Every structure is written in structure tokens, then in C-alpha cells.
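Quick start: read one record
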Amino acid sequence: MIAHKLGVLTRHCDSEGTDSVRIEKSIIGGPDARDGTDAFLREIEEYAAPGTTKVWNSPAVPDPAGWVREATSRLSSRLGEILPGRLDGHENGPGE
């Protein structure tokens, strides 16, 4: 579904003479990172493959700070493999 939506965006940009690479592609949602690192990362890889540059994933739990600590602990090194250079907080993607 993500690839389809990004394809629609690219075609629209082409018809309007806009460079679609300059547009940040982001998603809000996704699985809970604590429910399974491998499943979470497979889904993130599926988002990244067609050009998604950011995934906004937030907890719906009573302790959001604890959720962030746990998710970060589980995922940071493996996310670095999927999105090299994107975890330093300074790279915004091709449309910065």
C-alpha cells in the first residue's frame, strides 16, 4: 500500500513539474516496537524500501518514557542497519 501511495505522489509531482525527491515521505503509526523486534523491523523495512524517510511511532501506554527507553534499547542498532546515517537526529532525508 505504501509503494502505491508513493507512486501516486510521484506521478502527481511529475505532472506538476515538481521533484518528488524533495518531499519528505513519512508515516504515522506502525506496530508496537516492544511486541517483537523482528516483526517491527520487517514492517519498517517495507516502509523504507519505496522511499519513506520517517516513521512516527508513539506509545499508547501509561509510561511513555519507559516505552521509549525499552523500544530504543531493542531497536537502535538494528534500525541503524536499515537507515544508516538517519539516527543522529540531524538528517531529515532528501528534502531537507
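The longest helix spans residues 64-82.
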